[in-house]
Specification:
Helix content: 25-40%
Structural class: alpha/beta
Oligomer: single chain
Shape: globular
Strand order of the largest sheet: 10-11-12-9-8-13-14
Mean pLDDT: 92
CATH architecture of the largest domain: 3-Layer(aba) Sandwich
Largest sheet: 7 strands, parallel
Low-confidence stretches: 463-484
CATH class of the largest domain: Alpha Beta
CATH topology of the largest domain: Aldehyde Dehydrogenase, Chain A, domain 1
Strand content: 15-25%
Number of strands: 19
Length: about 525
């Protein structure tokens, strides 16, 4: 198998050497093709993943595939990832994008097809080649994704061989890939052992930590919505997403109401006998999660434990009064099993959230349901999690589905989680940046020798600007007057430039998706009109 991996790596290396010379237009043509073929196969690939792994729900896997194929695409399509990407002539600083080379991408069985789409798209957007090492339990559905995307990418102009895959993966093969002399960076999504192996490979790596996510419903929250959010996040794809809620902490004054609403939303509170049965099933003597319960329905898990629950149950709820090894179900469970706490006051709720995060979730995500800005501020300042999600489901909010966080399926946990970054991973993490710096404070001359700009911002950003301050505040030209007839659902940088050129305005509504650069340009030029 090592010889096969060597051959794959050599082929991807040859392709990536050519690909590194592509301009933005050529790269985007390939990204467009990946988007198109992925959107055409959302349900097919979701069904394939469910059939092969037995994990989760087809309808939720369709949503995850759509996040990777559509949301990620819209977010990264307008990114500048080739040539000069930044120019500050007044400072004598210019930035140039440089691909890292070959990405070794490890794909999990819990989110196989969506993660494959996502990692291929962000890798190629940054002009890298990529070699996929699929989880053995999901190798066929992942290969189907890779084959279809590879064909589409090559048809759109990508060098043949830019995407590789290990057909018959093993732990040894994955380790060999990560340490391969042609591997430049690792994208590792999987268990703690895999992430540690990635970081000890001697290569730059983006690994992700476990997500033992606490959710706190504070007394000022819209309790009905908060409960719906928690159930939606916890039951989504039967708990495969690492940002799904693992423990629910409820402020005492609203606890009774929350309990009643949880039951109405399809939650089953287990009794003490059933709790003991779940503990024996879900966690082994060493405190490790039983993989047989991962992403199984509440009905299947209950049956495995030795009891029955109605068919309409979405989440099994276990009441707890402590966190740690003596309370085994307070670990990350990757299933629709939720531990439940009641605490009096946000300070007590805060302490409980920290306990949960310290038991295997440091740096990942925390959910807070509250209308009290002071409480939200305190949680933001003091909680050891790098995604503080306010009034939204954990699963959906962390990956950017219900928030404006960068859409991503690899979520960094920062130094607290032994990760190199706390970011949601995008193409910007998969490229190096060259910086060209002209002398501005000479030591061997009295004055700086004036030079013409190396490149103007106009050539990079596509718009005229006037420098007002050293902090980069740009003043716009006169705003456009005419209007585009109907509101846009999605606005890109190209849409804004076109409207500017045609002296028209762009109507937007409350749910319009606007890319970051489009937002900056549109606001500078006063092009947007809210309807």
């Amino acid at each position: 198998m090592k010889s096969q991996i060597d051959r794959i790596m050599e082929e991807v290396k040859r392709a990536q050497t050519l690909f590194a010379e592509f301009n933005e237009e050529k790269v985007n043509r390939i990204i467009d093709a990946i988007h198109s073929v992925s959107m055409s196969n959302l349900e097919k690939w979701a069904r394939f993943a469910k059939e092969e792994t037995g994990y989760g729900k087809i309808e939720d896997k369709v949503i995850k595939n759509r996040v990777a194929a559509e949301d990620v695409y819209k977010y990264i399509r307008v990114m500048k990832t080739t040539g000069f990407i930044s120019a500050k002539p007044e400072m004598g600083i210019y930035e140039v994008a440089s691909p890292m080379g070959i990405v070794a991408a490890v794909i999990p069985s819990t989110n196989p097809t969506s993660t494959a789409i996502y990692k291929i798209m962000i890798s190629l957007k940054a002009r890298n080649g990529i070699v996929i090492s699929p989880h053995p339990f999901a190798k066929n559905c992942i290969k189907a994704v890779v084959d279809a995307i590879s064909d589409a990418a090559v048809s759109a102009g990508a060098p043949k061989g830019i995407i590789g895959i290990i057909d018959e993966p093993s732990i040894e093969d994955t380790q060999y890939l990560m340490k391969h002399h042609l591997t430049n960076v690792i994208l590792a999504t999987g268990g703690l052992g895999l992430v540690r192996a990635a970081y000890s490979s001697g290569k730059p790596a983006y690994g992700v930590g476990p997500g033992n996510v606490p959710a706190f419903i504070e007394r000022t929250a819209d309790v009905k919505k908060a409960v719906k959010d928690v159930v939606a996040g916890k039951s989504f794809d039967w708990g495969t997403v690492c940002a799904s809620e693992q423990s629910l902490i409820v402020d005492l004054p609203v606890a009774q109401k929350a309990k009643e609403l949880l039951k109405q939303e399809g939650c089953y509170f287990v009794n003490q006998r059933e709790k003991a049965q779940l503990e024996s099933l879900i966690v082994d003597e060493k405190g490790n999660l039983n993989p047989k319960i991962v992403a199984k329905s509440p009905q299947v898990i209950a049956q495995m434990a030795g009891f029955e629950v109605p068919s309409n149950i979405k989440v099994l709820v276990v009441e707890e009064n402590g966190v740690g090894r003596e309370h085994p179900l307070t670990l990350e469970k990757l299933s629709p099993v939720l531990t439940y706490f009641e605490e009096d006051g946000w300070e007590a709720g805060c302490r409980r959230c920290i306990e949960v995060l310290n038991y295997g979730g440091l740096g990942h995500t925390l959910c807070l349901h509250s209308q009290d800005l002071n409480v939200i501020r305190e949680f933001a300042l003091k909680k050891p999690a790098f995604r503080i999600l306010v009034n939204t489901p954990g699963t959906h909010g962390a990956i950017g589905y219900t928030t404006n966080l960068p859409p991503a399926l690899t979520l960094g946990c920062g130094a607290l989680g032994n990760n190199i970054t706390s970011d949601n991973i995008t193409p910007l993490h998969l490229m190096d940046i060259k910086r060209v710096a002209f002398e501005t404070k000479p030591i061997n001359a009295k004055d700086v020798i004036p030079l013409k700009p190396l490149i103007s911002p106009l050539e990079i950003y596509g718009y005229e600007y006037q420098q007002k301050k050293d902090d980069g505040d740009f003043s716009p030209k006169a705003p456009a007057k005419e209007q585009i007839d109907s509101p846009f659902d999605f606005v890109s940088e190209e849409d804004v430039r076109k409207a500017k050129k045609e002296n028209r305005r762009i109507k937007i509504h409350s749910k319009t998706i606007i890319t970051p650069l489009a937002k900056e340009l549109g606001e500078n030029w006063a092009i947007f009109e809210k309807t």
